[in-house]
């Protein structure tokens, strides 16, 4: 059987790219290294265009309400809800001043996230281009941003390079609130809340959420795409791209089987995809791929409880300094003595854990520490530290837009003809399942 | 009473440069300086009999060459002597040295890593080019991207063209420099830890950031911007100390007819009908002028010299948000004789250059960690020079002066700075140097310890920030000091800002003072 295209990886981006390509009449196969589909929920905004285009009627999007439960120092909790008035009321109990600023803060951040949403549904602007169409598109984007008003332009320039700690300190006084919001700014980054650019990371994870909700939506988009059976998926074998004379020719599976196709689209991390092909790449490009920062700092896993807890999303990040100290440990190659822990309840009453910072190989004693923080037995906590960034490349300011995955190659292409990238390592990055897949497929077509 | 065309508040280097340019354009100008001498943070003082110190700032390399030319500063006594080398002692007793001779530096690097020695030249070429690419920005009035005025649009277009003209690879390098941490940026080039440490240490000077904090890579460029020579570290030392730089500019200003009055602190700017009309001195005297320019930092310029009802509320909020967070201190020592560093024993040419106490990235990062939580560094980063080795006039014959720039010493120290804490800080500095140069302590004749609080008290720089406001990405260019007001004008007509708190700011560069003068003249003062 011959194929027009091979897609590597059956995660959200790989499957979305595959479905778009299949829709356009390509005969293709998706190859996935894991035998059993991953059950965990997809975290982040699924662009409505993807849902519409691919007719994902069975898709469930979930944003719990209250969307965050924050334990307070002297007992009790602070609960943040989708309803603005209820959040304001809850915050008022810990800080009237912060409560007064909350709606304005939410509105300002919302309008900045709106700009990102627009940027994320199209390929990153190519600032080197001489193509009049691309120039017109960039001018259009510029004009669109300026039409949003002077304040938004200033906010964008000020906020993006800021640290989340500075941004929050500008607005709020309550430590618990700042800690819980600040945690979103360091998601999947090997950086602390005082690092410049963490305010951008905060905005990135607000994309697609309504004003006042600062935790990404959860969905079952991967599962839904898997179940539609519109594309052939072959599981259980890791694929390596084959290339000859600067052209992709197909993939070879671990069992030695070769599948040939003139088009290979990889949702695997850019480095994993490209490094085996180093001989086909020119040295500067190979070096840039080697320089992609994708340091693993997150351990994910599950929490098992006898009965469903009272919260749906619990955040342990009591202060910004707590997060900063957790990061300090990672700087020197240790797991955080007191890590940031978040428990998310997904629809099947699974409790998923996000623990940060856990550099690879530093997992000893982590489950005990997390159990202690959550006040449960160690055997109720199961954690696995990621070797590499789950986003295939950290979302720092030097690795976004036209700098992602490597500078100048943001158009999903690679120097190898017929080989495309479509995973989280490409624009717009992790935490937005399907966006990179859709952009890549459109670019290919 | 005499009415001046312009009054410049503050006789630091930027204020003096503004005054000199205005006077050169035949304006009658009065400079008002609170202290008994001009210079602001660029002063040379004889703190102990016979021993002269550049109290605060201690090196020069960024002073814009067009200013040196326009004001003919060499004729007014400016003489810059090169600082030839940097030696970085390591904790294992070894060292990394960079010498004025490029080949020697290369051989030294080869001793540590052949790969790094190879990468070093390529790195140097890229950085040199990037510095050239950034320079025009320093001499440019930042366009306002929120404005639809033709001048701003043209400015933005020009900026876009300039950057695109760099070509892809260099444009990407620029983005990386603007956004990355110096540690990450250097990781892409080098493997020798001490090389990365000593280079990144220069990226943290004056900031409240560590070598692993994004935004510090940009400062690496500054080392390639100096126009003294194309050497490893193009810093220079002014004969007579940095005070001599101020004196030279003051002399140039006077030669153009400017009047400089010391011991004349300004307490208020007079505003009538939204227009500045003069100033009130601390002694109650009033002086009137058509134009008033302040070289003080933004906080004092707007929140102290003016009443808040004279400014838009939004603007006041922006200025209040402007971050200072001083992070550095200075220890000035009078020495009986030069100390010998155990990594390179004896007294020699290494003493004519700098010693950088930055033995490893983790060392510098840990120094920052202490400051983050409100303590001064237990093992601080230090940049040490012996000015008397470069300019023998700084100390009595046979004796020496030693200047130690220290980071981090946070302005907001837990419990606040006290005399006891200052001495403890001084002890920490001296003990740390002692650990690299045993026997050094016994050579100390006098010691002066300057904390950020002292810097604030003496020079007036808010929170002791040596750059008159942090040089963070969100406080640069059209955001410095506040969005919409980065073009030296202020919401009060006839009132201008000309200090380091405006674009491009920082260091003894003088670009702010010059650009402000241009703006004032263009507005038809």
Written account of the structure:
Chain A is α+β, with helices and mostly antiparallel strands. Chain A folds into three domains: about 5-60 and about 220-290 and about 395-445, FAD/NAD(P)-binding domain (3-Layer(bba) Sandwich), CATH 3.50.50.60; about 100-215, no CATH class; about 300-385, no CATH class. Chain A has helices spanning about 10-25, 50-55, 85-95, 95-120, 130-145, 150-160, 165-170, 175-185, 200-205, 220-230, 270-275, 285-290, 320-330, 365-375, 435-445, and strands spanning about 5-10, 30, 40-45, 60, 70, 75-80, 220, 230-235, 240-245, 245-255, 260, 265, 300-305, 315, 340-345, 350-355, 380-385, 420. Chain A has a five-stranded parallel sheet with strand order 8-2-1-12-18, covered by helices on one side. In chain A, strands 14-15-16-13-17 form a five-stranded antiparallel sheet, with helices on both faces. The longest helix of chain A has 25 residues, at about 95-120. The model of chain A has no long low-confidence stretch (mean pLDDT about 95). With about 525 residues, chain B is α/β, with parallel strands linked by helices. Chain B has two domains: about 5-80 and about 240-320 and about 470-520, FAD/NAD(P)-binding domain (3-Layer(bba) Sandwich), CATH 3.50.50; about 85-235 and about 330-410 and about 415-450. In chain B, about 35% of the residues lie in helices and about 20% in strands. Chain B has helices spanning about 15-25, 65-70, 100-110, 115-140, 150-165, 170-180, 180-185, 195-200, 220, 240-255, 300-305, 315-320, 360-370, 385-390, 420-435, 450-460, 510-520, and strands at about 5-10, 30, 45-50, 50-55, 80, 85-90, 95-100, 235-240, 260, 265-270, 275-280, 285-295, 330-335, 355, 380-385, 400-405, 445-450, 495. In chain B, the strands form four sheets. In chain B, strands 1, 2, 9, 10, 11, 12 and 18 form a seven-stranded mixed sheet that branches. Chain B has a seven-stranded mixed sheet with strand order 7-6-14-15-16-13-17, with helices on both faces. In chain B, helix 8 (about 195-200) crosses helix 13 (about 360-370). Chain B is globular and about 65 Å long. Chain B starts with a strand and ends with a helix. The chains are: A alpha+beta (about 450), B alpha/beta (about 525). Chains A and B meet through helix 6 and helix 13 of A and helix 6 and helix 13 of B.
């Amino acid at each position: 059987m011959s194929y027009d295209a091979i897609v590597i990886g059956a995660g959200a981006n790989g499957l979305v790219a595959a479905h778009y390509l299949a829709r356009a009449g390509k005969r293709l196969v998706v190859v996935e290294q894991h035998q059993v589909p991953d059950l965990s929920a997809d975290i982040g905004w699924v662009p409505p265009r993807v849902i519409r285009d691919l007719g994902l009627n069975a898709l469930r999007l979930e944003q719990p309400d209250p969307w965050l439960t924050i334990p307070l120092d002297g007992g009790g909790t602070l609960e943040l809800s989708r309803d603005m008035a209820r959040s304001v009321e809850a915050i008022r109990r810990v800080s009237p001043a912060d409560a007064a600023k909350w709606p304005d803060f939410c509105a300002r951040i919302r309008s900045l996230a709106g700009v990102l949403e627009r940027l994320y549904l199209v390929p990153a602007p190519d600032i080197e281009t001489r193509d009049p169409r691309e120039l017109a598109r960039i001018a259009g984007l510029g004009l669109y941003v300026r039409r949003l008003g002077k304040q938004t332009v200033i906010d964008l320039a000020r906020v993006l390079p800021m640290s989340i700690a500075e941004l929050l300190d500008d607005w709020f006084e309550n430590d618990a609130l700042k800690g819980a919001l600040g945690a979103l700014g360091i998601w999947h980054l090997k950086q602390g809340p005082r690092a410049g650019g963490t305010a951008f990371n905060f905005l990135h994870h607000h994309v697609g959420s309504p004003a006042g909700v600062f935790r990404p939506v959860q969905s079952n988009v991967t599962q839904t795409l898997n179940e539609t059976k519109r594309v052939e998926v072959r599981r259980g074998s890791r694929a390596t791209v084959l290339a000859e004379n600067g052209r992709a020719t197909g993939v070879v599976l671990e069992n030695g089987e070769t599948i040939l196709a003139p088009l290979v689209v990889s949702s695997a991390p850019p480095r994993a995809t490209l490094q085996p092909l180093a001989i086909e790449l020119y040295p500067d490009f190979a070096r840039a791929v080697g320089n992609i920062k994708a340091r693993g700092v997150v351990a994910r896993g599950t929490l098992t409880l006898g009965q469903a807890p009272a919260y749906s999303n619990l955040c342990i990040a009591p202060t910004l300094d707590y997060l900063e100290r957790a990061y300090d440990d990672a700087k020197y190659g240790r797991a955080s003595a007191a890590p940031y822990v978040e428990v998310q309840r997904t629809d099947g009453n699974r409790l998923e854990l996000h623990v940060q910072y856990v550099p690879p190989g530093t997992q000893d004693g982590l489950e005990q520490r997390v159990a202690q923080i959550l006040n449960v037995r160690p055997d109720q906590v199961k954690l696995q530290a990621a070797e590499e960034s789950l986003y295939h490349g950290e979302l720092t300011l030097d690795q976004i837009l036209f700098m992602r995955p490597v500078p100048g190659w943001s158009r999903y292409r690679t120097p190898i003809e017929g080989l495309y990238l479509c995973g989280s390592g490409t624009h717009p990055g992790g935490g937005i399942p399907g966006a990179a897949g859709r952009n890549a497929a459109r670019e290919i077509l | 009473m005499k009415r001046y065309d312009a009054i410049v508040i503050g006789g630091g280097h930027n204020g003096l440069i503004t005054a000199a340019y205005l006077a050169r354009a035949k304006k009658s100008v009065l400079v008002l300086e609170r202290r008994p001498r001009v210079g602001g943070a660029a002063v040379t003082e004889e703190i102990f009999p016979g021993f002269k110190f550049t109290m605060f700032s201690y090196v020069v390399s960024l002073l814009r060459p067009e200013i040196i030319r326009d004001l003919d500063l060499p004729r007014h006594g400016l003489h810059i002597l090169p600082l030839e080398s940097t030696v970085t002692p390591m904790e294992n007793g070894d060292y990394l040295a960079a010498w004025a001779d490029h080949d020697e530096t290369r051989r030294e690097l080869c001793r540590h890593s052949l790969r790094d020695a190879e990468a070093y030249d390529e790195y140097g070429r890229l950085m040199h080019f990037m510095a050239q690419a950034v320079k025009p920005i320093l001499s440019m009035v930042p366009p306002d991207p929120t404005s639809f005025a033709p001048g701003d649009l043209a400015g933005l277009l020009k900026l876009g063209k300039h950057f695109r003209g760099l070509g892809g690879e260099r444009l990407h390098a620029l983005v990386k420099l603007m956004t990355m941490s110096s540690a990450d940026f250097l990781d892409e080039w080098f493997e020798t830890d001490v090389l990365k440490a000593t280079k990144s240490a220069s990226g943290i000077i004056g900031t409240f950031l560590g070598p692993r904090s994004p935004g510090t890579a940009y400062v690496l460029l500054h080392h390639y911007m100096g126009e003294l020579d194309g050497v490893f570290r193009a810093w220079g030392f002014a004969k007579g100390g940095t005070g001599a730089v101020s004196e030279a500019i003051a002399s140039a200003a006077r030669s153009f007819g400017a009047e400089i009055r010391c011991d004349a602190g300004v307490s208020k700017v007079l505003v009538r009908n939204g227009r500045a009309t003069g100033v009130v001195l601390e002694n109650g005297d009033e002086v009137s002028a058509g134009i008033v320019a302040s070289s003080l930092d933004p906080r004092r310029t707007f929140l102290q010299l003016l009443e808040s009802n004279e400014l838009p509320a939004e603007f006041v909020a922006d200025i209040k948000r402007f971050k200072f967070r001083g992070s550095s201190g200075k220890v000035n020592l009078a020495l009986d004789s030069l100390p010998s560093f155990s990594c390179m024993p004896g007294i020699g040419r290494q003493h004519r250059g700098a010693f950088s106490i930055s033995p490893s990235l983790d060392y510098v990062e840990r120094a920052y960690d202490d400051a983050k939580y409100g303590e001064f560094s237990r093992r601080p980063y230090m940049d040490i020079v012996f000015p008397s080795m470069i300019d023998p006039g700084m100390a009595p014959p046979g004796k020496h002066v030693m200047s130690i720039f220290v980071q981090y010493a946070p302005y907001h120290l837990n419990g606040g700075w006290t005399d006891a804490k200052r001495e403890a800080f001084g002890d920490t500095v001296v003990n740390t140097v002692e650990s690299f140069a045993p026997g050094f302590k016994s050579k100390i004749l006098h010691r002066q310890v300057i904390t950020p609080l002292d810097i604030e008290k003496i020079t007036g720089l808010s929170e002791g920030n040596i750059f008159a406001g942090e040089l963070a990405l969100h406080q640069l260019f059209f955001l410095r000091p506040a969005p919409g007001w980065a073009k030296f004008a202020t919401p009060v007509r006839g009132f201008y800002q000309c200090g380091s708190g405006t674009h491009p700011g920082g260091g003894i560069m003088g670009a702010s003072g010059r650009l402000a003068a241009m703006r004032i003249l263009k507005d038809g003062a």
